[in-house]
Amino acid sequence: MTGPHHTLTEPASDAAIDTACRVLRLPTMRAQFADTVARAEREHLSYRGFLAELLMAECEDRDRHRSERRIRAAGFPRPKWLSDFDYTANRNVTPALINNLATCEWVKKGEPLCLIGDSGTGKSHLLIGLGSAAAMSGFRVRYVLAAKLVNELVEAADEKQLTKTIARYGRVDLLCIDELGYLELDRRGAEMLFQVLTEREEKNSVAIASNESFGGWTKTFTDPRLCAASSTASPSTAPSSRQAPSPTDSPRRKPNSRPTDRRRPSDPTASRVVGSRGTNLCGGGRSRWRLVQCSSL
Asked: Within a 13 Å sphere around the CA of 175, how many CA atoms are in the beta-carbon half?
């Protein structure tokens, strides 16, 4: 190891720093070195302060590039950000609800999310925006249209690559499936989609945007049993709330028993998935979906 180069001139030092940044792959430090030197001299920064400025700039730039790579890898069809969502155009969606989801705690916990509403109510915008927020937070995200995913799975099955394809979709932290319910799936396609959801069960999050309520998913999954099963494919670890009694049920209490706590969960997006006739689609009370109702269906 050579000793310190005390005799380096200023131009030689600049050239050595430039070369070292290239070798060590520090492009931001190389680009900002001259400006940071000038500012350090002007503001009388210490050696430690000067070095900290350069290292922090390099770290921040790398974080930004990693986030951009994750967003590109997600395959979003167009950039959509939560900050651009027009809440005045859809009074059913509140900033508080979306800001809660933007923290990505539900992704960290592996909880499922469903955005339901008519066409033009902002489901895809929110789906892409929440996916982008997750990617910016460091999560691996993948976006895909439901029909495109099914076609890819069918082609993979024909090429005997189905297991590998399902595993690939199972590895991402958040899988965003858009436009579920727009097209009816045949039994084979529905079963393959169900396998993807099952691969993610209790491990990673799935976010689904659909123009059909849960009760209408039988139009997409033509087998009613598969439709019910698909709604249990991505349960979260959060405790499920109790099923609300139907209007015809009269609550009964045993003598000296305490009344049931019927308070709503603190999270406004947490919702028990219930079908059109009160049928629990979440598999015996294990699951708890986060629901964003973009319009009444």
From this structure: 26
Residue ranges in the chain whose pLDDT is less than 70: 1-6, 215-288, 296-297
The SS3 of residue 201 is coil
Q: Which of 125, 126, 138, 128 lies closest to 64 in space, CA to CA? A: 138
pLDDT digits (tens, 9 = 90+) for 131-143: 999 999 999 999 9
How far apart CA 30 and CA 37 sit, in angstroms, is 11
pTM for this one?
Answer: 0.69
Q: Token pair of 245, please?
A: 């009694």
Task: Considering only the C-alpha atoms of the chain, give the largest distance between any 2 of them, rounded to a whole number of Å.
Answer: 93
Question: What Å distances lie between residue 102 and 19, 136, 269, CA to CA?
Answer: 42, 10, 12
Asked whether 128 and 176 are in contact (CB, 8 A), the reply is yes
d(CA 78, CA 17): 40
